[in-house]
Amino acid sequence: MLQGPYSSLDRDGLLIRLPLISFVWGTVLLPLIGLIICLFISLMYHFEDATYTHCQVSNFLPSISSAISRVPERYIWRCCIGLHSAPRFLIATAYFNFYRSRFANRLLELLLSGLALVCSMAENSGLLLLTYVSSTETYSVHKNSFIVFIGSSLLHMLITCWLWRTIRRYYVNPEEVMSYRRKVQLFLFNAICCLAALYFFRRHNNYCETGVYTLFAISEYMVVFSNMAFHMTAYWDFGTRELIVATPPEGKRY
Fold first, then answer.
1. Which residue, 119, 130, 200, 244, has most beta carbons within 10 Å?
2. CA dihedral of 94, 96, 100, 101, whole degrees rounded to 10
3. What is the pLDDT of residues 123-162, one digit of tens each?
4. Residue 124 CA to chain centroid, in angstroms?
5. What is the band of 12 on the pLDDT scale with cuts at 50, 70, 90?
6. Among 187, 219, 221, 222, residue whose Cα is nearest residue 203
7. Number of alpha carbons in the 13 Å side-chain half-sphere of residue 192
8. Virtual torsion, Cα 163, 164, 167, 172, nearest 10 deg
């Protein structure tokens, strides 16, 4: 993957040239559209099953785990996440190279950049695992995968905010300042929604109150949507970069 303008590329060897931001948009829209479709089908055709819990009280919305565990929702979600996962690994690597160029002489930030890469890989891997092992198949694996996804996601956001705080301190690009502000806002919102989801989940299990599981489901939706929005801040980070696939000149083939 190459970034930035490359006017010296051999034009005969150029295979694909795509703005990186378009690549990011496609990557984020896949799970967003897939989730909306799964929720719609669950509410329209599997409402009773999707909103059922062991408490047997009235609920009005399914959790995400419930919404993606039935047919055809399961296959729609797996298809979207399968297509989404490879670009996510590529974007994580692009961010690591971006940070490495910015923090070439700053050891702490370089180490944090590496940790951000590991967290991003863990987040994506956890999402893949909880997607392909549904809660109705092997609950313990699904549950632990969800914990890995949420934990690595929050840590990745926190590290990213720290790195962009440093970038904002030394650069005055307005797009980078905007990116930092949006990242901090979305991280705080995501963390609050995670706490709310945990609270409502435990309250539902302990007291079996009507509608509390619905509040958990709404909090869970907000966690996922804010996570997607956080990744979309790449709009300000990679606005002028390009994804290029090309064959090397004859003299540079090894």
1. 130
2. 20
3. 999 999 988 887 777 878 888 998 999 999 999 999 999 9
4. 7
5. low
6. 219
7. 8
8. -170
* 111 Cβ neighbours under 8 A, 6+ residues apart: none
Q: Please report where in the chains the tokens 């995400």 appear, as a residue.
A: 64
Structure tokens at 109: 């930030």
CB of 84 closer than 8 Å to CB of 30: yes
Q: Taking the domains of the chain in order of start, what are their residue ranges?
A: 19-240
Annotate 177-205 with DSSP letters as a single string.
Answer: HHHHHHHHHHHHHHHHHHHHHHHHHHHHH
- Which is nearest to 73 in space by CA: 7, 134, 3? 134
* Distance between CA atoms of residues 254 and 124, nearest Å: 33
Instruction: Assess whether the previous peptide bond of 72 is cis (omega < 30° from 0).
Output: yes
Task: Label residue 148 exposed, middle or buried (CB < 10 Å: 0-12, 13-18, 19+).
Answer: middle
The span from the CA of 134 to the CA of 141, in Å, is 8
Which stretches of the chain are DSSP H helices?
A: 20-45, 47-51, 64-67, 73-102, 107-132, 139-170, 174-207, 212-231, 234-237
